[in-house]
Queue: 2 jobs
Job 1
Amino acid sequence: MSRTWQSLLLHLVLVIGAIAALMPVVWMVAASLMPPGEATALPPRLVPSDPTIEHYRAVFTRLDMGRYLLNSILVAFTVTGTSLIINALAGYAFAKLRFRGRDVTFRVLAAGLMLPVQVVMLPLFLIFKQLGLINTYWGVIIPSMASIFAIFLIRQYATAIPDDLLDAARIDGASEARIFRAVVLPVITPILATLAIWTFLTTWNDFMWPLIVLSDERRYTLPVALANLSGEHVQDVELMMAGSVLTVMPVLAVFLFLQRYYIRGIMAGSVKG
Amino acid sequence: MKAVTIERQVARAGWLFLAPALILIGLFFFLPAAAALVLSITDFDIYALADIDNARVVGISNYARAIDHPLFWTALKNTFYFALGCGPLTVLVALIAALLVNAPLTRFRTFFRTAYFIPFVTTLVAVAIVWRYLYHAEYGLLNYALTTVGLDPVNWLGDPTWAMPAIILMAVWKNFGYYMLIFIAGLQAIPRELYEAAELDGASAWKRFIHVTVPHLGPSLVFVGVVVMIGYFQLFAEPYVMTQGGPLRSTTSLVLLMYEEGFRWWRMGFAAAIAFVLFVIILIWTLIQRRLEARLA
């Protein structure tokens, strides 16, 4: 087979793959713009005959999804912000601060990586009930504020900081807090950028724990609200697709704009296996 | 400053920096994990939820009940069906995608890589709803495609034989992009000269793949094997949204059963026992994989 044919065949397969990967997302957007009933017409359409934004209007007025959007934004930003600080401090301490009990503590945390979160959910629900955190935003936020996985990643990254740099600052009389801010943070910024995107995406898409902890509709995050609405509105395909677009678009936008940092992080962190 | 004071300053800072994370992880992860074990040997139910004095220690009877419960075995079987079907399939698709995207002849590499990765960042609940429509027996896009090429339509989510394969297909679509990235990273770490040397020796493309690519990809293959299966043992949102565990319980997973028992019927003692079975499965799986990893390294 000549090189041209090889290349042609290769790209044909790649394009078919790309169509398969993107089709559900494309159909979701198309269906959300169709007049009622068109998404279930035969033969199926991929392009709306007469594009309309009425379902988006209904999503905000009739289904009150603006509220869920705000809830999701609030939860995702709070988790991302707080967890970055908490995990960065811990990851750096594990990597660079020498003190008694550090390595034992680290090994205990490492063992925790094998525990599936679902094991924790039942007692956590009962604990949160005692603390009055059921059906609150904090009930969703608190369990995600520290992550063993993120601490590991930061620790791995921070190990590369030269000890001399830190010791020099100490001899100059800098406090540990100042060293963290002025010396450590600038060095670990790339991994923090990756983690920020990762945390935001994970929190936004998270479903099971918010479903358990939130009972009042007014506090639902988008995925919980969407799962709830999709039972009631099974027949309103176009409306449900508008709701799905609203849920997916923010994360898709974050990813598309910041994918450089995100993809680089995944690829760098994983080569070691 | 003196060395001793510095040492003390570092130690104090160390614990101070760890404190927020340790407190959160201790109180809201390790403590409830231990409590789950205790919960699983009690008859904690809706009455105990109202007043904890109603809970009694019942030993291993929750586990005994699980063994007698046909639904538990169904859920266990479904969970393994999903993980064992979906895991290898995801790895295979991810590997093929990585090889294609990374092929020397490929152009617009970034575009294809991004296109294949997009499903992974989408919100699971939202795309599960999308797929529910794509799978629709009458007006779904998938059946339309099948009938167009002359195949019989399939009642994807309405037929107990097809519901789990449908969920597997959707999960492969959703997740392969992430593992593709890991494979691409692995492929790019293979020194070019090895391929050039093999080519000079007259090795065919297939030979080069078997003798150069596969051995070098070994570690990332094992890594992906662990991560992908551990994730798949925790199947929940897909059946919750797409099938509610049906039809005829054919897509009820362990986690879905735990959720229903624990948070719908409030039989939390029984649900905790199910959660522990999941933990043991994942533990065994992790240990097997670690051994494999050690052998490969």
Job 2
Amino acid sequence: MTTQTNIQEMAATRDGFGVGIVEAAQNNPLIYALCADLTESMRLEKFEKLFPERFVQTGVAEQNMIGVAAGLALAGKIPFAASFAVFSPGRSWDQIRVSVAYSNLNVKIVGGHAGLDTGPDGATHQALEDIAMMKVLPNMIVIEPCDAQQAREATLALASYQGPAYLRLSRPKYPVLTHNGEFKIGKAETLLEGNDLTLISSGSSVHDCLEAAAILRKRGVKVKLINMHTIKPIDKKAIIKVANQTKNIITVEDHQINGGLGSSVAQVIAQELNRSIDPEVKFAMIGVSNFFGESGSKVELKKKYKIDSQSIVSQVISLFR
Amino acid sequence: MLTANHQLSAERISQLQTLATETRIKIIEMISQAGSGHPAGSLGMTDIFVTLYFEILKYQPNNPTWRNRDYLLLSNGHICPVLYAVLNLAGFFPAIELNSFRKLNSRLQGHPHYPSLPGVENTSGPLGQGISQAAGLALALKRDKKKNRVFCVMSDGEQQEGQVWEAYQFINKYKLDNLTCIIDRNRIQISGVTEEIMPLENFKSKLSSFGLNPYEIDGHDLQQIYSVTKTAMTDSQPSVIIANTTPGKGVDFMEHKSEWHGKAPNAEETKIALAQFK
């Protein structure tokens, strides 16, 4: 018996995961959830209550959690192993590399509290490197949904997808932008139409892009907004298309500028320039530029580290100059 | 504690000894022709692997993913020559393939890769990972009320990895009595003597305090390997067998020498080594 939940209110991507994993488990008896002492934070309380025989609490031991998940996958289960992204993949990367990715096992790594969005906990708890760590692994795919509805759908999609995957989630609540049935792994989504410039983003930064686009529209700049929820495999076709359509591309992410979404887009543009991409295309990247974060509210942090809507607007203006 | 029905006949012991000698010859040949590899631990664990694969584990070499099989997960992947040699003798793949060990396009990787080679149940190399994999597998089988047994082979140096102790806590918490761990206590590791690099003693009491049931055996006494393993398998709590072994067992110049942890014999040394098995 499946309950289809349409998330409409303000919610965090982790909330969407919590809903999605329960639905996935209702649909498929092979679904397992593992947690390293963050049951409430990773929104696994309902799963634990409804499916205690498929819930595994490893305690604060992320390396063992990933190994156990690999073992469950060897037995044919579909484990989702959840912790904060700074701990897993942060601390469990070797286990993910060898026990999961190299063996191509059907394990889903779920990293919560990603980005400066984590706020007052400070730099130790703000994962700004996890996309880089995960996208570099062969066999691994990387997904960062932009809202709770999409997180729910991504969770369901990953439950049916065969192979290792990383799902990046964040802490704060945001309005729901996407609709049920829209999510498809590897297929970029257009959230706004415009001809002057394309913003390509993922996760919570999509919301900052929306704000920036509204400001820019008032100034006469029509922004196309692409939600690149699948960072690997990146939707190359979509990048080529919007590059040629709008000639200006800026990527925006709550992650280190080295090795994140922007660098994946840059890779496509650099390789396709003068081939399928117009050589006149201008490109810029917005992300955390080689800094660790610190304590503060998410609004203050995004402003200080220049990934907020105002920084996006400034970058757009300088790109056009 | 040992019961009379866990006894091997003298004739069977003799057959297993012959298989062990064949295994050791294959190990030396594989590592020698590859020009690299880990002979000491492979030779030291030969008697245990032979007893496990020819007396204890249930499997079907022609149907390697048989659903009722027992699983052996190797956690200290560097001793894979002994695993490959025994899998070959058990009929999982032809002997000719042993010559491809550590070479390009081979299913016999320098450290074991799942699912490349039939019979290899897990990927390992970085120490400490196989035990967690074994724990997850044992948990799934236990929750599904399946009868398959899981064995995990580790080394003593490997116990220095924190992940191993994370896994022990987990195995105790979930009472994984379908899992039997076997630890190669050969007292050497790549840089020297284990007790000097990082003392493990009192190992038995450490294991007991983690809620595991420790046994200690002579890892070259086939009767003891068999009877203690069979006994440990019937325990109502997770058990760990500490197997005291001689690294490099059977090749006099390799025995107890940490320099042979990860070094291949040259042509002359290979000749001398092989002559010792005649």
